[in-house]
Structures are given as C-alpha cells and as structure tokens.
Amino acid sequence: MIAQVSRTPRQAMLHCLLDACRIVGFESDDARPVGELLARSNTSDVVDAHVVHTAERYDALVLTADNDDIARLADHADALVCHRQL
C-alpha cells in the first residue's frame, strides 16, 4: 500500500503518519486468506484485501481515501474491521 501513495520524499505528513504505523509485508501465508476474502466480497483489489486482512489480524483501524472498497471487503471479513474515510 505504501507504494501506491508514496510518490516523493517531500511528503512529510505521509512520512510522519507512516512512522506511527506498523508496516506489514505480504507474506506467503497471506495469499490464501486474502484470496478467500476477495472471493467472498466479489472484488479483485489484492492490495485492499491485504489491508483488510492485516487490520483483521492485528485488530487495527484502516484509514483510507477509498472507504467504499474497504467497507465492502470489511463486510466480508471474519472479524470486525473498523475503517474511516480520510
């Protein structure tokens, strides 16, 4: 997800936000649950599904500019995933 939003080293506010976040990579163990979430939600954005899956695993809040897509995925997660529009 960072690669989708990080365009220049001058994004000071973004970098401050990221300093307060736990950065989690896509691991091989994530592939199946992310794919299953995509199937349940009838969506195709692997990055959004990984964000929701990770938030579910760590009981984390998702801050997003794309709340509709995250909400659709969150509605199909196995546990409650809280999300807020930026």
Protein topology:
Layout: H1 2-5, H2 12-19, H3 31-41, H4 46-58, E1 62-64, H5 67-74, E2 83-85
Features:
mainly alpha; 51% helix; single chain; 86 residues; two-stranded parallel ribbon; 2 strands
Summarize, please.
This protein is 51% helix and 7% strand. The chain has 86 residues and is mainly alpha-helical.
- Tally of helical segments: 5
Name the beta content range: 5-15%
| N/C terminus separation | 15 Å
Structural class: mainly alpha
Rg on CA atoms, Å: 13 Å
How many β-strand runs?
A: 2
Query: What topology, given as strand order, has the largest sheet?
Result: 1-2
Can you write the helix and strand succession as a string?
HHHHEHE
Tell me roughly what share of residues is in helical segments.
Answer: 40-55%
> How many domain regions?
1
Major sheet size, sense and barrel closure? 2 strands, parallel
Low-confidence stretches are none
Mean pLDDT: 92
* Overall outline: globular
Structure description:
The structure is a single chain. This protein has 86 residues and is mostly helical. It has one domain (24-85). It has five helices and two strands; from the N terminus they run ααααβαβ. It has helices at 2-5, 12-19, 31-41, 46-58, 67-74; strands at 62-64, 83-85. Strands 1-2 form a two-stranded parallel sheet. Helix 3 (31-41) crosses helix 4 (46-58) and helix 4 packs across helix 5 (67-74).
